[in-house]
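#onboarding

Welcome to the new folks! Below is a worked example of what a typical request in this channel looks like: someone posts a single protein sequence, and someone else replies with the predicted structure as tokens. Don't worry about understanding the tokens yet, we'll cover that in week two.

Example request:
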Amino acid sequence: MGLSEKTISYIKENCGRSLTGMTVLITGANSGIGFKTAETMVYMGAAVIMACRNREKAENAREQLLADYPGADIRIMMLDLADLDSIDAFAEQMPDVDVFVNNAGLYHRPGQKTRDGFEMVMGTNYLGVYYLCEKVLPKLRECGHDVVLVNTISVVHKIASVDLDRFYEERGDYFRSKLCLARYTEHLVKQCEGTNVHVYMNHPGLSVTPIASHVLGGMYVLAKFVPINSAEKSSLSVAWLLSNPVPDGSVVGPNGLLCGWGYPGINRKSPRASRDIDELVKFSRAEIEKKHPSGGNI
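Example response:
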């Protein structure tokens, strides 16, 4: 099917950088915004690594891309953020990359737990990404070139709150997971200051995806009447980020009303993302070590 003419026109006018010779790794790249991000990167000339937990879906997604972009360099790596052993195996095999996009995530899964016993949403969207970043960051720092690390948050983090004593409470788990990820990413920004690793956050705004339908509930019917982004339009944040001068630590996402839709730009940070960061990082490390002592010193 390929990118729409409108998207191609936008890329040519606003994302003119060629990514030829660069490798972009995207988690959760087999569907939704992750898939469209992969397609955009391929269109711009990059080699793409699709890091996914379901091989069959990943292979199908890869075949779809190759049908539209014959000869593209598209590889698959297995990665399940709900399994700390899977993260270990992935980190050991991860090749040199220029861009690392943490896109994978899921919404409310009542009663479900990760392989290591964490509540599913917090264990995947936050603790899984936290552990993945901690495991791959040393490798990214060893690269002989600049590396862009992008963590995908959500506008809903602006209305979330975190109580470490109620960390795994299922109510509001998706919102809370994204606020935790925003706070941890702020920690990474400081940790990587002055190094070759440049850390950013992006968000899709209000986008036509399965997660959005769960977040908005019955209000999702408004997608027919208001300019909610398509997955393709929301995926342009990474392309725009790589092609424009963006200060380290910035949040990139739709620049329309309430940052809900529109084309990407730099968004104002939420003050909630800058609170209680040290406490969260200390808590996260302890939680991982309790469940996964074989994970090594993080």
